[in-house]
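User: I need a structural model of Glycogen debranching N-terminal domain-containing protein from Microbispora maris for a docking pre-check later this week. Nothing fancy, just the predicted structure tokens so I can convert them on my end. Input:
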Amino acid sequence: MANAWTFEGQPAALGAGTVTLVEGSSFCVSSWNGDIRPGGPQGVYHADTRLLSRWELRVDDAPIEPLQVLAGEPYHAAFLGRTQPRPGRAESTLMVVRDRYVGGGLREDLLLRNLSDESAGCVVDVHIGSDIADLFEVKINRVRHVPDVDLVPEGTSLRVYSLSRARGAMIRTADALAVPGLLGFRVAVPARGEWRATLQVNPIIDGEESQAWFSTRHPVERAGPAVRLAAWQRHGPYVVTDHPGLARTLRRSKEDLGSLRLYEPGPPDEPPTIAAGAPWFMTLFGRDSLLTSWMALPLDQSPALGTLRRLARLQGTKVDPLSEEEPGKIPHELRFGARSGVSPHGGACYYGSVDATPLYVVLLAELRRWGIHREAVEELMPHADAALSWIGEYGERAGPIEGLLWYRRKTDKGLVNQGWKDSFDGVNFADGTLARAPIALAEAQGYVYAAYIARSHFAHEAGDHETERCYTERACSLRRMFNELFWLPERGCYAVGLDREGRPIDSVASNMGHCLWTGIADEDKAEYVAWHLLSEEMFTGFGVRTIASSMGAYNPMSYHNGSVWPHDNALIVSGLMRYGFVAEAQRVAMGLLDAAEAFGGRLPELFCGFDRKEFPVPVPYPTSCSPQAWAAASPVQITRALLRFDPWIPYGRLWVAPVLPEEFGELRITGLPLAGGRVNLVVWGSGETKLSGLPPEIEVHCAPRPSVSTLVGHHDQFSSEP
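Assistant: Understood. Predicted structure tokens for Glycogen debranching N-terminal domain-containing protein:
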């Protein structure tokens, strides 16, 4: 783990034809026929450890020919295949079905179906290998040769041990011959009959074996993940629309967000958190989990509460340069890898992000605005205040200009860049020169501005007028400073940030769209920002690029320098709508939904930034995570933005003024969670809107919420939070 945070390349590509199954902190990457082949990133993973790096099925020493993969739930797939032809036959008569369930390990139900009129005698072998590799080692393709992993037969099962015996796996089955690296079955499949076997991979963590969640001890439908997913699908809002692509994308988003929920050991009613994405980020990430929870509020508010509570427990309490922990700071990433040397219940925390801390306050305020978990929100207020204290005591003092939020890594083992564009080359000048830290990012100032406004509203509700005035003044001061220092009049846009000398980093980049979302941008500058975002240099037809094509660092196949990120675009749509640029917001939204349709309804983490005029379909980015949390939440947020649905329940108000594109036709949402109840919303093609199920004390405003800051501090008129 020593160098885990400093990797400056990109993850190993999974390759074409791979299948990824996900459940909580567990996942499996395999080839199309179900085999896990050694030498690459494929494997069975749990707690940031690759338990198995080989899992290959052979019948009579020959591989299975793939026929089809039947994708079920995110944790389940059935791999259909056939064996080589039987002796004396031209075609195969032996079908193979591998029914696989992932979660806390793996369960695989094997079925051989004999389609001939003669009994088939065969040898079925499962070849097994393991390197007990840390996820980071696999991710960057730097797995060391590990001669200290033993595969020890125990009866009909195999035990996989690392040298320390702290981590490994137990592969359990019945009626098998177990030898090191192999489980074998000698079977006779009856004519027109079947043979079945079940193999279960149980993880060993800290020397203790735990049951895979889809255990053979109970039916699959009664396993914890199946029960939770069924409840998620049953109780969440239901959307009906005339636009089939939107309906399909929203269904897939809901399913993916359900699969990425993380449940910590504890009370059964403890709300979940959200993992950042599969395969490499199946853990809690401060920035990703907070923004995903914010965007997913129309689906369910429980992940927001779970994320806030979990991050509060991990909030910094001391100064540690190696982990970059500081009092009040919100973590960037939590890991449990085999090389971390920590218990999976504790995890290794890294704090190297500048934006998770203000976003913590922003999400807490948004949860309050939806009128949910009021007591829990109040209990978390001390953590919000600690986060705001970190901004003033550490973040603002890290750079040359006071009053702004800066970052600079504490040692050479930390991330060089600590905003959402956190690759080593993600922050650069217009000529392509890399910016040098300390750096004050434009969007991070917007997040702080929104956090200050949020805190002033909390104080207003509590009757604490001194704190209210303090944070209102801080917000106004930051906004003035931001618009003076970050605005580039010669370009008509905001700088990406300021460098160590206080110079504007003059790239034309998507970061300024976040400044519209948070409301820190001056009204007279927003029109220029909107023009840039929709210019040919930035808008591809499928979404807004991270930087303009005229910039020196532009590369549409790069991670952060010309690609398109769905979550970035969702916040841009929200920002454009906030400042009244309806047509522009609709254009970006429809482009992104077209991209989602091309990806089968599932938006990936990012895709290449080629222009739609050049290539009529979006070009995938090879190592993009999928499913990925904030990409999955983006269609939900875009739909909310187009509905202009803005609750402010503590003040008894709700703004809703839909501006749906004509292609949407009629839109019906049933069971939208709000104010402790369920609301139904119908929007007809004409724009006529009907709400039902709303508490009678809530006043509905059929107009967009007043946008930004000319009335900061006037809590009786509107909210200035994102």
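Before docking, keep this in mind: The two ends are 36 Å apart (CA to CA).
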